[in-house]
Structure formats: structure tokens, C-alpha cells
Design brief:
With about 650 residues, this protein is an alpha/beta fold. Helix content is about 40%, strand content about 15%.
Amino acid sequence: MDNAILPPGIIAQWLEMAQRNIHCFPHFFRHHGIERIALVYPNTQNAYVPSVDTLVKMFAAEVAAGQHVSVAFYLTESPIGLRGIPKLNPSDFTGSEPIDAMVVAEHDVYDSLKGMILQINPALKVFWLGDIITDVYQAAMIAAPLVDTLIKLKVAGHRVLFMLAPTAMDLERPSPYERLLVQYGIQNGGIGRALKELFPHSGLGDKYTFDEYVKVAMSPLSMIPKKNYHVMADHQSASYNITNSIRATVGQPKACDFRVHVFGNSAGLGAFLADEDTSSSHLQACFNKNGARACVLNYCVDAATSSNISLRIQDTAIDEQDSVVVIQPKCGTNAVHADFFGDYYIQTMRNNGIPVINANEHFQRPHDLGEVFLDARHLNHNGNKRLGRLIYAALADDAAMNAPLPAVPCPYFGMAEDVPDAIAPVGDWYDIVSDSAEFRSYVAKLKTIAADIPQATGVIGSIVVNCNPFTLGHRYLIAKAAAEVDFLYVFVVEEDKSVFPFEDRINLVDLGTEDLPNVGVMGSGKFMISTLTFPEYFTKGERQGAAIDPSADVELFALYIAPALGITIRFAGTEPNDTVTRQYNESMARLLPRYNIAFREVQRVETDDQPISASRVRKLLEERNFEAIEKLVPPTTLAYLRLFAERKG
């Protein structure tokens, strides 16, 4: 195939869009104010390439079908034409012809023809077909999944905000420091090798000494794969903390009425700054100052693409009362005409009732903020403070947030058309856990266990319990679940981070359920509710009221453990008091059905108008109140606790 006409990579992009029924070419021309084009394609015997010829005709048909742009078809030699499309003559290109633009299929012809045509008619736009395909592909396949995801959240009733983060390149009246950042292309990595020279001018000296800031700026920006997108790797230090792939937000309350989920790339992450200086922490400060019990969660990922952000949003538990904020600067893109790509975001979101803040408008000088940029693409602490306040004001604007939705979704510049499907998560999840030899050995062992249990057939259920210690509440839950399935696996948390050691806890469960013939009790291993998969479980006392993301634990179970044992339903007790466990239950309810695993909560059994709980038993044990404990635990557990108390003295 002649690469001078359309390279194979561009043809592949075009075919991918065609396979997904994405037809955006008319919108490209509408964006540029073009109503009539001349399509130039050399169709001589020497240059004829059947597959390219077919695609060019497809392009003409798609554009003409858009009911906005008409097509005149012109062949440089041996004109054949297309049925229903008139031919033009070379003499037509004089400035009086009724066309706004020319589209040239062959790149060599485009290079030679563009200058000649523009000399005759400078007002005429001339495009190479390959550039148009690239632009449309970038918008449809890269930007559209994120736009589609946000539209769906808006339709579902969430407050949604898109923040186009500022860059120094877009400032009309930059400061001398900002001019230096742009002039020398200092865009990524803090202020990098120029740090020492530029530090006195950066505004960072208002808060740090040079040596102090160097330690902050050296915080790692490491990503790890999760499913088919990336998240930030966990890290803990004095100034930079990421836990469960969520960056620390300073000032989070212990309990909240709603959450604000912040997604984006390094502009939202607060790269090269301390936790307290991110826009999310400044947004949290605004909520705290105004008495709103909100919890701001920062899911941003360094260098995240729009598709990565879209997948992360889809894979996050967002409650009915929660808000979603996306922070992105002008995206790095392969689009040739960047204005078309950028306008896609702003126009399409606004057409669908999603508020958009173009932050550049709020960072134009004169202002009294001092220096606001760390480098040309990242804000410093002053800039993020302004960004956090802008986001707070937008979320507090009820009129903007509750703007009516269009009667018909408008995914492409106000024209009703099907939105391309958001990128769906793949079935295989590659990460450091599921790809390890230890995990593969663990799954193989589970399959062997299942094969060695003759009664493990039919409908198979499961429960994961800690039993610290085993109570009548646990007994009720297990008996209730066992009555609903043919066989029930009861996994006892194996991690030894409880008051009572694992060996004692699993023995108490064995003794307390030995009369249930269809129950099998086993340890959970390292891959169910462990410090590896769900570390927050073991610091529940410190995490009450905080938002957590236990999806890693739930999905390892759904993707690998449940299939190995044939499990199709998982049970859990309702959780009225412990917010960490309650969020774990909510995560199971949301995620397990995606993998054809049912989830069922069993109402907690109560005594004296209180749920029976292991924490209640432990408190009574500290008081040596065995009379009260006797009402809450089986006789085997009561005997164990008496002995345990004697040993403790």
C-alpha cells in the first residue's frame, strides 16, 4: 500500500471507528465553519489503490450523510466520479467557487497543492485527509469515553464539574518567571535541573527553604497497573502520602455526609507538592470552613489519559449524594488541530449541562496571588489554593449544578448521535498480586480443595469472617447462609492482627458450627481481607468515617478465588456501626454481580436492642462480665474466654 496516500496506522484508526459505528467527520467540518468541501483524490492507473479508494468513497459518503456538509468530488486525472456527486474542474479553484475547503487524500499532492491553492484563494482551507482522520480519532476514541462517563453521571443526578486546569502557555500577560518557564519549556518534573536558579522566583520560598522543597519535590510519582488502567503506587512519607492509590487529603473529617471524588492527571494530583498543598486539600479546607461535612478524595494519577480517568471513575463507588470533579489541563494529544480536540471537551460538556471551568480565565494577570506556577503545567501551593476555591464555588452554585439536561443527549457539538461506548474493563487483571507465583499456587490449592470435598456441589456460597471472637451473631449468619445453599465455605481471616490468634479463632468457628453438615471452615490465606489486599480492615478504629476503597480485595475474590471453588453467592452481616466494614459490604454489593456472583446481606441478630458484635464481647471481657458475655456467645466460646482471661491474669 502506498504510504504517501494514507499510512496503514491512519487506515487502522479509521477502520476502528467504522467498526464501532463512530461517524464524526461532519462535526470536524462544522467546528471549522465549513459547509462545502471539494474532495481531491488521484485515481489514475498508476496511483490506484483499491482499498484506499474504497475508504475515500466511504469518507465522502459519511460527510455527505451528515446533512451539514456537501461534497464535490474532483479527480486530478481520468475523472470517474461517484454517483450523485458532481465533478469539479481545475478552473473552479479561483475564489468564486461555492466551496469552503479542499480535502486532499494523497499527502504528496496535499504538500504541492496547498501552497498553489492558497495563493489563488487565501480564504480557502486545505486539509490532508490523514490529519482529519487523526483529529477525529483522538476526539472519538480518547476524549469521548471520559465525556460519555461524565454525561452518564450527570444524567444519574450527580453534581459533575470539569476543570480545565491552567497552563503558563495560555497566559496573556505572564510574569517574568512564567515567561522563563514557557521560553525554556520547563513543563514536567517540578522545575527540574533549573530548580536552584528558579527557586527564588517561584513563590516556593514563601513556604520552604530550598533544601526543604527538594525533599518534597523528590517524592516518587510511581504508577501500577490495575485492570486495564493505572493508579498511583502507595507511598508514605512526611509530606507525600498515597494509601490504596488515593492521595492523602489534609483535613478530612472522621465522618462525612457526602464525598467529592476528584479525578485527573498530575495537575489534580498535586505533583511535586506536599499533601497539604494539593487543590483537593484546599477544597477540603473550604468545606470545613463553611461547616459542610464533606470528604474530598484525590484519585488523580500522574500522566493519566482521558481513557484512564474514565475507567477509574467507572470503577469507583460513587454514592447518590456524591460529586465528581475532573481536573485536566489542555491534554497532550496527537491531534493535528488542537483547537478542535479542546473544543470537543468544552462544547460537548456544556451542551450536556456539565459545568466547565476554564481556569486560565482566573489566572490571568493582574492578580494578587503572587507566583502561582511550579512549572509551566503545574501549579504551586498558591495556585492550588485558588483552584480549590474555584472548585468549591462551582460545586456550591446550585443553579449551575442543577442546570436542566437536554431532552436529547448532545455528544458531538450539539448534534444528537450515539456516544461511543466507554472503554470496558478487561477480564484479566494484571498486577503484582494476581501475577505472582505465590498467588497462582494459592488458587491451584483452592481448586484441589474443591475437588476433595464431595459435598461441594450445587449452589455454593461463602462467608469471610474474622470472629474475634466467635459469637452467636456469627453463628446466626453462618446457619442462615448454610440454609440457602447446598454448600458453604466459611473463610476465617488468617492475618494475626486480632486480639485472639488465628488458630484459636478458627477452632472456635469449627466447634461452633460442627452441627452444620454443609459447612466447610478454612483459613482465608494472604489474599482475602489481609494487609496485602485490605489493610484498612486492621486499622478500623482509626479509619471510622473515612472513605476507603476495598475493591482490590473484592475483585481478587471475584476474578480468581470464587471461580476456583465454584462460589456463586457471598453472604455478609449488615453493619450498623463499623463504617469500614459497611463500605466493604457496599463494595461487594456493587462489584460482585459484575462477575455473576450474588451478594446477600443478613440482618444482624440483636440482644438488649443492640447488635451482637465481637467488639461488644471484647469490651465485656475487659470488664470480666461473663454473665453478659454468656448471652452473646456459644458455650464453646464462653469456655475459651474464661480460660483466656485466667491466662491474662
